[in-house]
Write a structure and sequence with these properties.
It is built from 13 helices and 13 strands. It has helices at about 15-30, 65-75, 85-95, 115-120, 160-165, 215-230, 245-255, 270, 290-295, 310-315, 330-345, 345-365, 365-385, and strands at about 5-10, 35-40, 55, 80-85, 100-105, 125-130, 140-145, 200-205, 235-240, 260-265, 280, 300-305, 320-325. Helix 6 packs across helix 11 (about 330-345).
Length: about 375
């Protein structure tokens, strides 16, 4: 029998920034711990060396078979600590309260405080939060700032080779490009002078679940506008979700099928990330804000919706571009297009953002520091046990 302390990691699915963070964390964890991972939903598409993984097939939020599966796994593995990495995982872990210690990650401060949530919080021994949280007991709270998940190194290749590797043809612009901010505008004639479009297309990435709440439809509207000015670009949307068919219909209705590509869920998401010229992140959810940090860490400029999390990571105009969320959707969409075009049209501006963002990530959002602080929490809980 192993004398090592046992940690059971529970996560709702691999298909999020949290899943990527857990995968990297499990690889770097000290050998003094024996690990096992429980994935509630999706499929087991990751192979983490020396870390057994069980996938339970969660179908909806309250799933009896998944609840029983978690209990069965706990009885078999007999962990010292159950580490819940998100809100759904926390619910299934805390409902199996027993001799093991419950450690929960609280990433979104806006979680409603219902009776069930209060019960789950009482059964939890420690909370890891990204910033100070007044709603949780001080003696149970450990603040560990968000970190950038390390992005695997990718050999630099040309844009044309990258598109060919993914199986997408290089599309030529349908006409001359009409620049917006460096445009030689003639007020007397009230006309813009067109110019030949860049021969190398810009690559725009989105890494989010395909749900209306993440404003994918707003991104498609922005891409249609880029078509009107004949910008040479390709947009790649990585993720899957309940509204996929809706977005595909809008893409085809707006004739974006040659420019906008839905790649679905991919196990190599973070290998694709360094090849983007810009990451577009319009979600207000704190759960997926870690993607912003990962993009910054590999020098990909970010255009993001202004939220408490994005303001914490990005100094607007220096380390990225923020889009104000105020006003009606028309103002918000127009602002998103203008700032995206401004970033793409100014190469020197993009390069300055790349340097500043990478420097800040290395100094303030270091992944290895967060790993060590979580190990310290494990040791403290095991001593108390």
């Amino acid at each position: 029998m192993s004398s090592r302390s046992k940690i059971l990691h529970v996560v709702s699915s691999w298909e999020s920034g949290i899943g990527n963070e857990l995968a990297e964390f499990a690889v770097r964890l000290s050998p003094e711990f024996e690990n096992e991972i429980c994935v509630l939903a999706g499929t087991n598409r990751r192979n983490i060396s020396d870390v057994p993984t069980t996938t339970l097939g969660l179908r909806w939020t309250y799933d009896v078979s998944t609840y029983l599966g978690v209990g069965r796994l706990i009885r078999q593995f007999r962990p010292n600590i159950i580490h819940a990495w998100d809100a759904v995982a926390h619910a299934y872990a805390a409902l199996h309260y027993g001799t093991q210690r419950i450690l929960a990650e609280k990433r979104d401060a806006e979680v409603p405080k219902g009776l069930l949530q209060q019960y789950l919080d009482r059964k939890t021994h420690r909370f890891i939060v990204p910033r100070k949280n007044e709603t949780l007991p001080v003696d149970k709270t450990v603040v560990i700032p968000p970190v950038a998940v390390p992005v695997p190194y990718s050999e630099p290749i040309s844009t044309e080779e990258w598109l060919e590797k993914l199986g997408f043809p290089l599309v030529k612009p349908s006409g001359d490009y009409y620049p917006v901010f460096q445009s030689q505008y003639e007020p007397a004639r009230r006309t813009y002078k067109s110019m030949p479009p860049p021969q190398t297309p810009f690559l725009i990435g989105i890494i989010l679940p395909l749900c209306l709440e993440h404003r994918i439809l707003d991104a498609l509207w922005a891409f249609e506008t880029l078509n009107h000015v004949h910008l040479n670009y390709h947009a790649f949307i990585i993720g899957d979700g309940q509204d996929r068919e809706t977005f595909l219909r809008y893409r085809d209705r707006w004739k974006l099928f040659s420019r906008v590509h839905f790649l679905g869920d991919r196990h190599d998401t973070y290998r694709l990330l360094p090849h983007f010229d810009v990451l577009l992140h319009l979600s207000s959810s704190a759960e997926y804000s870690g993607t912003i940090l990962s993009a910054m860490s590999c020098g990909v400029p970010v255009v993001a919706l202004e939220t408490p999390e994005s303001r914490e990571y990005i100094v607007d105009g220096t380390m990225g571009v923020l889009i104000p969320a105020e006003g009606d959707f028309r103002f918000y969409r127009r602002t998103a297009v203008k700032r995206l075009l401004y970033l793409l049209e100014n190469e020197a501006f993009r390069q300055s953002i790349q340097i500043a963002a990478k420097d800040r990530i290395a100094k303030e959002f270091n992944f290895d520091d967060a790993v060590q602080r979580r190990i310290d929490v494990y040791r403290e809980l095991i001593q108390r046990q």
